[in-house]
């Protein structure tokens, strides 16, 4: 362990002295994550979402609506059809998936971060490429048609498998400061501004899309097949909420915790402030059993920083008593590393 720690320290010092090498490695890591999440996203979409849409494409309101840019494309197609348009849904989605993503990526470039926007663009491009590639792989086609069944249990399984795959893709991308494009970019922006979870913003935006889609379906069908449209609306909401749960569980960037440290070392606050971009509050206390003077230190950190804080406290005071409490929200000047 000591040898490994020594090597790690040497690598860290080397990276601080060689900024371009560090930036190249960071970008390479981002490129690798973008590729892996694109594969995961394409797998969930091609194997579980696409068949659920294609199998019912001829019946309005009977297919799953995923929200996002794809859902907006579906809404635009429906409005076009109601106005007399004859363009196919696949063509419309292909056109507007690109058209709608362009301003969103420009928004990300100027409002979130240049590296974030570039890697998101790569992720979107690779996702489209892998979806096309999977359509030519027999194993993937077999998976896509395994759940071809009209029963509720099969429909639920398809929705949940899709939610886990796509939710993992989005959350892993978010955790590494990338996104899968579309509505994810907008929800990520609001989550950064409000320093809160991403999932609820994505769900709110997508819920508007789903309700609009449902309303247009009722108008087109003149009040017929409302039961079918409503049931598939519920499945669509099940998909969205499942994705939200996966994203908020895995993505810990904006999750905050309060650490309480009971110690006899007076200067432990100075050590913590020197190593983390957060301040502390210290209260004088007294041990209930020993009656010895103690210092109670409160500190709010990101959940990803907890282990490093605890390790540092243990180095300073092996007998310190540390508790960690999850927080719903923290108001004030809480520092979060900006997105590049």
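^ structure tokens above, recovered residues below v
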């Amino acid at each position: 362990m000591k040898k490994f720690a020594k090597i790690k320290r040497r690598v860290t010092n080397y990276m601080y002295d060689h900024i371009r090498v560090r930036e190249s490695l960071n970008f390479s890591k981002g490129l690798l994550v973008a590729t892996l999440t694109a594969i995961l996203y394409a797998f969930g979409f091609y194997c579980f979402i696409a068949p659920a849409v294609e199998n019912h494409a001829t019946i309005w309101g009977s297919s799953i609506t995923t929200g996002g840019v794809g859902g907006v494309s579906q809404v635009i197609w429906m409005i076009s059809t109601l106005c007399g348009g004859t363009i196919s849904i696949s063509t419309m989605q292909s056109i507007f998936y690109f058209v709608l993503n362009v301003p969103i990526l420009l928004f990300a470039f100027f409002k979130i971060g240049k590296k974030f926007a570039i890697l998101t663009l790569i992720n979107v491009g690779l996702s489209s490429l892998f979806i096309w590639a999977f359509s030519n792989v027999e194993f993937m086609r077999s998976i896509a048609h395994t759940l071809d069944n009209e029963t509720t249990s099969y429909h639920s399984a398809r929705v949940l498998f899709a939610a886990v795959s796509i939710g993992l893709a989005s959350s892993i991308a978010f955790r590494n400061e990338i996104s899968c494009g579309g509505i994810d970019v907008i929800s990520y922006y609001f989550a950064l501004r409000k320093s809160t979870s991403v999932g609820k913003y994505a769900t709110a935006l997508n819920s508007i899309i789903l309700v609009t889609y449902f309303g247009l379906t009722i108008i087109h069908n003149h009040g017929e097949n409302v039961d079918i449209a409503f049931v598939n609306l519920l499945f669509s909401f099940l998909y969205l909420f499942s994705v939200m749960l996966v994203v908020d569980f895995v993505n810990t960037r904006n999750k905050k915790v309060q650490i309480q440290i009971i110690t006899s070392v007076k200067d432990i606050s100075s050590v913590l402030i020197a190593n983390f971009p957060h301040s502390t509050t210290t209260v004088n206390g007294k041990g209930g059993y020993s009656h010895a003077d103690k210092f109670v230190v409160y500190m709010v950190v990101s959940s990803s920083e907890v282990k490093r804080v605890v390790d540092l406290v243990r180095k300073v005071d092996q007998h310190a008593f540390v508790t960690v409490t999850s927080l719903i929200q923290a108001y004030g000047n809480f520092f979060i590393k900006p997105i590049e």
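Confidence is low (pLDDT under 50) at residues 56-62.
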